TrEMBL record:
Residues 571-655 form the Histidine kinase/HSP90-like ATPase domain. Keywords: Kinase, Membrane, Transferase, Transmembrane, Transmembrane helix, Two-component regulatory system. The keyword Transmembrane helix applies. GO terms for cellular component: membrane. The chain crosses the membrane at residues 44-66, 78-100, 185-210, 222-242, 248-268, 280-297. This is Two-component sensor histidine kinase. The keyword Manganese does not apply. GO terms for molecular function: phosphorelay sensor kinase activity; protein dimerization activity. Residues 465-532 form the Signal transduction histidine kinase subgroup 3 dimerisation and phosphoacceptor domain.
């Protein structure tokens, strides 16, 4: 589907190219005319030919770029209009001199003067305020601002009338234009026009401020480009306005405005605009301050000495100001950087800020990281999963490792500030410092999760043990005792009538009771082996070795004669791990020798090794291996099982006290 059926885009581009050609043609005409009449560069500069040509061509160039790539954006058309108006003035002024030199008719010469006088005020009084009100031009004006734009348009003739009616020639020897008024114009025109100019400029700045406050990151980045240009203009204007008494320098800086607008609309990510604005704000404030102090100091010297300040006094004042303002410069630099970049120039403060938020958990820590460095986004990832985040993720992200000791436990994902394409060296250095408290927080979360999983496993194991006991009691011992009770009643009933049958039932009762007792002993043994209470850990393990050892297998136990008193849970865990490992070695390893070693070195160590074939193949985790690890974890220990250099190897390290 054709979205431009009438060729509006093509026509707009053709019109833009034509206006650009008109601006360049006017500037070239002025340059050729100036050269033809021998106008020097100084004369052209004093007549504002150079500045008008530069402003006109720069506005027109930026305008044609914006109009070509964004045909619907009104900013491009306004830039073109301003460029043409300025360039026409630049071309007309030398042409007037050429006409005077070559005897052109007075009507034509005065007409050119009128064009030169009346052209450029429309660029300054109408186009520039509208540019401020509309920029960046892709959202239109709200209802509250439309009346401001209309007021700007309708009141623009006041500014034009103020300048066009002046009775001063545009240069020495030039005639007056047709709009010049003999004597002073209406008394009310100048103050009203000046007030109008101030109001429309303030309205444009207010519109920019509102748009910045309500805009998203993209809009703010665009507006910061214009802010940077305006601040640079202010830096250029302040000293020359007070010292040199001319605005030539500020006129040369005006092309920064269309350049900034063009970059903001077409390539707003070109540079780290926050850094540009930071430096501009700093030096703008410093320049203003230096100028003010300089004027005050010169006035004071003039009052004291009652004479004009000479060159030596001016130089001395400049040196004093430069030396005195250096501490102010340092403080202003810190203040501006802190506003735009946080505490990156003060790593200690940044680390302290993050450390204070450790108790708030990972989201609070990440928020502190963002606040410390003015970052739009920060997140932590562990195991490929995002475990915490703060802020809105921008398009450009950077990842830094988070380590705890030698281990990499996660990644810190950072969102770059608007306008940045890489993480600066200073930011990276501060983030590496912040990684220390972050690693502590991530490690603490990992420990907490591991503890939670361990508790859940212990609870599940305990519930499984209770379920098994209930099943054994309900399905085994319960029916057995019920049967014993029935047979006891039957034997009692037969005792008088049939003693032989009664004795037979009693014999059966004896066997069933014996089996029930054996079942109870098995349950008790499962809860805690009686041998531990009778023989101790070493004796119980030795008894298990005697029971499990088969012919052709040598089993050796290495253990101290006596062990200190151990918690019952630790003792039972050590015994069951040793018996399980010994059972696996006897049944599955094909070993000829098994070594069981028990020793203490601040922890209770149980180690079972064999010379079987397990070294030749990986171990598959089964119920027995899982059981050994769970029994060790229940008391706060660890158990490792797998192939060793000589065969199978099971090693457990258990604490001497059960953690609570």
């Amino acid at each position: 589907m054709n979205r431009d059926p009438h060729g509006r885009t093509r026509r707009r581009r053709v019109l833009s190219a034509a206006l650009f050609g008109a601006a360049v043609g006017s500037a070239v005409t002025g340059a050729v005319s100036a050269a033809a009449v021998g106008m020097s560069f100084g004369e052209a500069l004093d007549a504002f030919v150079v500045t008008n040509a530069l402003i006109g061509v720069s506005f027109a160039t930026c305008g044609v770029l914006v109009s070509w790539h964004r045909p619907r954006n009104p900013v491009g058309r306004l830039l073109l209009a301003a460029g043409v108006l300025q360039a026409v003035t630049a071309g007309a002024v030398p042409l007037v001199r050429y006409g005077l030199t070559h005897g052109w008719p007075d009507v034509l010469v005065r007409g050119l003067v009128t064009v030169a006088t009346c052209s450029w005020p429309w660029a300054i009084g109408l186009c520039l305020p509208l540019l401020l009100q509309l920029f960046p031009g892709d959202a239109g004006l709200g209802r509250g601002w439309r009346w401001v734009a209309w007021a700007t348009v309708l009141s623009s003739p006041l500014f034009e009338a103020e300048l066009a009616t002046e009775h001063d020639p545009i240069a020495d020897g030039y005639p007056l234009g047709y709009t010049a008024v003999q004597g002073s114009p209406a008394a009310w025109l100048t103050p009203v026009a000046e007030a109008r100019t101030l109001l429309v400029v303030l309205a444009g700045l207010a519109a920019l401020a509102v748009r910045y406050r309500r805009g998203d990151e993209r809009r703010r980045r665009q507006l910061l480009w214009l802010v940077a240009a305006v601040l640079i203009m202010a830096v250029a204007w302040v000293p020359w306005a007070f010292v040199a008494g001319t605005l030539v320098v500020v006129l040369f800086s005006i092309p920064l405005v269309p350049a900034a607008m063009t970059i903001a609309i077409l390539r707003y990510r070109l540079l780290d605009i926050r850094l540009v604005v930071s430096r501009t704000v700093l030096y703008g404030l410093l320049t203003t301050g230096v100028a003010g102090v300089y004027i005050g100091l010169v006035a004071l010297l003039d009052r004291v000495m009652r004479e004009q300040v000479g060159l030596g006094s001016s130089l001395a004042a400049t040196v004093l100001i430069a030396v005195g303002f250096n501490p102010v410069r340092v403080r202003l630099q810190r203040l501006v950087d802190r506003v735009l970049y946080g505490d990156r120039s003060d790593p200690v403060r940044a680390v302290s800020r993050v450390g204070e938020r450790l108790a708030a958990g990972l989201p609070g820590v990440l928020e502190a990281v963002r606040e410390a460095l003015r970052l739009p986004f920060a997140a932590l990832r562990a195991g490929g999963t995002e475990i915490a985040a703060s802020g809105d993720a921008p398009e450009l992200l950077r990842t830094l490792p988070v380590t705890y000791g030698p281990d990499r436990i996660g990644d810190l994902v950072i969102g770059l500030r608007p306008g940045e394409k890489r993480l600066g060296r200073t930011d990276r250095a501060v983030l590496e410092l912040l990684a220390a408290p972050l690693s502590v927080a991530v490690h603490a979360v990992g420990l907490s999760d591991e503890l939670q999983r361990s508790r859940e496993a212990i609870v599940m194991a305990r519930e499984e043990e209770r379920r098994r006991l209930r099943r054994d009691l309900h399905d085994g011992l319960g029916p057995a005792l019920t049967g014993v009770a029935f047979k006891a009643d039957a034997a009692g009933n037969l005792l008088a009538a049939d003693p032989a049958a009664a004795r037979e039932l009693i014999a059966e009762l004896r066997g069933e009771v014996a089996r029930a007792v054996a079942g109870i002993r098995r349950l008790v043994y499962d809860l805690r082996p009686p041998a531990l209470d009778d023989l101790g850990l070493v004796g119980a393990v030795r008894q298990a070795i005697d029971r499990l050892a088969r012919d052709g297998m040598a089993v050796r136990l290495t253990a101290p004669e006596t062990l200190p008193a151990l918690p019952a849970a630790v003792e039972a865990a050590a015994y069951r791990i040793a018996v399980e490992a010994l059972t696996n070695a006897v049944r599955h390893s094909g070993a000829h020798r098994v070594d069981v070693r028990i020793h203490l070195d601040g922890r209770l160590h149980v180690q079972v090794t064999d010379d079987g074939t397990a070294r030749d193949r990986p171990w598959c985790g089964g119920v027995g291996m899982a059981s050994m690890r769970e029994r060790a974890a229940e008391v706060g220990g660890v158990c490792e099982a797998g192939p060793g250099p000589q065969g199978g190897r099971v090693a457990a390290a258990l604490p001497l006290a059960v953690p609570r």
